Amino acid sequence: MAIEPPDTKVDGSTMNRSVMSLSGGMDSTSLLLRMIAEGDDITCVSYDYGQKHIIEIDRARDNINYLRENGHNVAHYIVDLSSAMMSLHSALTSEDIDVPEGHYESEQMKQTVVPNRNAIFSSILYARALSIAISQNCQVRIALGVHSGDHEIYPDCRPEFYHSLEKAFSIGNWESDRVSFHLPYISFDKTNILQDALESCTSLGLDFDIVFSNTNTSYNPDSNGRSSGRSGADVERILAFHAIGRVDPLKYVYDWDSVLNYALDQERQGGQHE
Fold first, then answer.
1. According to the model, what pLDDT value does residue 111 have?
2. How far apart are CA 211 and CA 22, in angstroms?
3. Sheet holding 179-182: strands in order across?
4. CATH superfamily of 16-217
5. What is the pTM of this model?
6. Under a CB-based contact definition with an 8 Å cutoff, are residues 39 and 230 in contact?
7. Is the pLDDT of residue 54 over 70?
């Protein structure tokens, strides 16, 4: 049985069918914008894995609603993995381990690694993508927002990991030629990603500040959902906004000048350790 080509858009070009992981953070949100701008038919999956920063799922919902209000109907599913993953050893899931603060490439940030997390997430994405591909007789891409800034600390964000994973999944499934991984940010850093998102918002007529106020990057937000500005993920995000000449619309515990100065100080200290 022949595989059908992607659907055709109004302008005669083809439409990709894509499945992606939407954490509610900056990277996956940027990727979602990029794929909407490219005209993809998108299914988003968010995961509750017992993370302390569970507010990221609420932020993902907020952006999905904002996109729908602006004519972009994106399918969104939330998968509950909390009972299986909240006992895994990580500062992101264990109440016994504090989320480390400081530069995002420092050794202590390895405490934020959740064992085998991206393999678990990707397995679910692959199953959904292959199900769509078979039921609709089409090709499906699995899109992920992993990027070069993740490579130092998170081994499951490296290109070789996804090459191996794709090979394993293809061996373990019938009709796996219908599914492929799509990693457009794999050589990008956070600044490149944010610039890409800005361009996507402009092309789609979306408000960049609204979109990114509806995201969460902090691993240790306070009870009001405000980002600490102190975790490694916060620092990386703040520096990216500074690099493109914008103030982050996200609410922080401290004012913008304070979190920016902290991030710049961590960047200087991180550079000294290289």
1. 87
2. 13
3. 75-80, 41-48, 17-21, 140-143, 179-182
4. HUPs (3.40.50.620)
5. 0.91
6. no
7. yes
